[in-house]
Design a protein that fits this description.
Elements (H helix, E strand, L loop, with lengths): L2 H14 L5 H12 L7 H8 L8 H5 L7 H14 L5 H20 L10 E2 L9 E2 L10 H21 L9 H14 L16
Antiparallel strand pairs: 1-2
Helix pairs in contact: 1-2, 1-6, 1-7, 2-5, 2-6, 5-6
Length: 200
């Protein structure tokens, strides 16, 4: 699935978990998308593909460097150090990280049919790789449906609760986004967060 879809799913889970602050919600959303950090090598690979010495950082390291339990433990350690809820938030981060891996096993087959097996036990072992023979392509219709549903839930939660994923980047921009959304869709419900955005 695309990083945008992973991010939206993470933020929705953060909302559902009752994360009390922007920081906690941001940590959960980040944990949901951060495994795709090992896909950044695609930029270098595309830039060097027609040279005499192409750099295959994406082909060699995608679904390897960050799609594993070792990287997950590092991410959750940041949650323990930075979250307001030092037990619940890291536990939710652990959940969304694994949800990302599961979503990739189900729906992230490459255009050439490559499954990108997930070496789950790295860096401790290569003994267990996650694959599924029924994996659908990254651009298959189920991924578009899931992304559409995630967007719909995000818009509803923003309208209902008065905050959106935009808050992670800017509280002011989030207020403008929510106000615009509510003006477009006939006002707002009673705000369940009387103290605003739950800022830390």
């Amino acid at each position: 699935m695309s990083p945008v879809t992973h991010f939206l799913i993470g933020w929705i889970v953060a909302e559902g978990s009752g994360a009390p602050t922007r920081r906690d919600r941001a940590l959960i959303a980040a944990a949901s998308v951060i495994p795709d950090l090992d896909g950044v090598g695609a930029i270098v690979e595309l830039a060097t593909r027609n040279t005499d010495h192409p750099i295959l950082w994406f082909s060699e390291y995608h679904h390897a460097l960050a799609h594993n339990i070792g990287f997950c433990l590092v991410v959750c350690a940041f949650g323990v150090a930075l979250a307001t809820r030092r037990v619940v938030t890291p536990a939710v981060m652990l959940f969304v990280f694994h949800l990302h891996l599961l979503c990739d096993v189900v729906g992230a087959r490459g255009p050439d049919g490559e499954q990108w097996p997930i070496p789950y036990l790295l860096p401790f072992s290569l003994a267990w790789e996650w694959t599924w023979s029924g994996q659908w392509a990254l651009n298959a219709w189920p991924n578009f449906v899931i992304t559409g549903l995630a967007l719909a839930v995000m818009f509803y939660l923003a309208w209902r609760r008065g905050r959106s994923p935009v808050e992670i980047f800017s509280a002011k921009a989030d207020e403008v986004f929510v106000r615009t959304l509510r003006n477009r869709f006939h006002g707002s419900p009673k705000n369940p967060f009387p103290n605003g955005h739950g800022m830390e």
